[in-house]
Amino acid sequence: MQTLTFFLSLFFVHGMTMYSAHAQVDIKSIPAKFSPRTQQFEIPTDKTKAIRIKLPGSIENKAVVINYLKNAALDKVVVKVHSVEFDARTSVSGVRLTQESTSDYSINMGGIFNYSCSIKLKNNKISSLEGACFIRIDIDIPKNAKIEIYNKESLLTKKFYPTELRTLFADLTKTSQSDAKLQMLQDFIASYKSTNTVLVLNSSELSQIVKSFAFSSDKLEALKKMHSFVVDRENLSKAINESFLSTFDRRDAYAIVGLKS
Questions:
Q1: With CB atoms 3.0 to 4.6 Å apart as the test, which of 31, 67, 92, 179 could cross-link to 132 if both were Cys?
Q2: CA angle at residue 256 from 251 to 260, to 5 degrees?
Q3: Cβ neighbour number for residue 258 with a 10 Å cutoff
């Protein structure tokens, strides 16, 4: 028997993950006593670039089923969130659709709540359940729609669009770890290469990126990665002087971008 046991207490929607769904549940086989529920949302395809699943816990990627349909309505994506409940202290009925920007939507839970789930599966069928659980998400999308689907931070589809600069700036503020920040820069660059998009920065944006690092060695490494994308190179010396305080660091920075100190 395959056993999945989930326990989670959340005070905010982006709380700590403490459980993981390991298999797709056969939706059609769920007994009525487990109160199967499907919450459905429609998202317009026009101008939409990304849909992000931000439900509590850790639904594995294989439990998010993306169906590309030839005969689907071309103007919308349909998201179905499947859940079950039995002897539950709280409900998972409060799933909501949020438009986070003109091009991004998220499926999330709002409010303050406590959440717990204990479930056992056998051959992808529920054999016992206590609490309330998300078990599967179906996404019906027009075949040719260029919309990225994310489960938390995992990209489940092809990358259609480069990462926006404002997203990079926001991500750089979320960690103090230099290695993580340098990887963010690498991923940012890769998003442009993979989508055949030209990456263009100005010197002020370069300076903001470099100054997000605490140590000189990391600042210099960030400069190495990013300076070639700057178009107003006549302002590079100003950006370097703003980003580096030490005369020695400035000398090294000038050498990296090919300027005389």
A1: 92
A2: 50
A3: 10
Rounded (5°) CA angle 176-178-179? 125
**Which two three-digit tokens encode residue 236?**
């590079």
Whether 160 contacts 147, CB under 8 Å: yes
Which of 136, 145, 108 has the alpha carbon at shortest distance from 38?
A: 136
Pairing of the two strands 50-54 and 104-109? parallel
Burial of residue 202 (number of CB atoms within 10 Å: 0-12, 13-18, 19+): middle
Q: What is the pTM of this model?
A: 0.78
pLDDT in tens, 17-66: 333 454 578 888 899 999 999 999 999 999 999 999 999 876 889 889 99
pLDDT digits (tens, 9 = 90+) for 180-210: 999 999 999 999 999 999 999 999 999 999 9
Which residue spans within 123-194 are E strands per DSSP? Answer: 125-142, 148-151, 154-155
Alpha carbon 112 to its chain's center: 22
CB of 108 closer than 8 Å to CB of 67: no
Find all residues with CB under 8 Å of 133, minimum gap 6, and list them: 6, 21, 83, 84, 85, 92, 117, 119
Return the structure tokens found at 23.
């298999």
Confirm if 77 and 60 have CB atoms less than 8 A apart: no
Burial of 199 (0-12, 13-18, 19+ CB in 10 A): middle
**Side chain identity, residue 146:** K
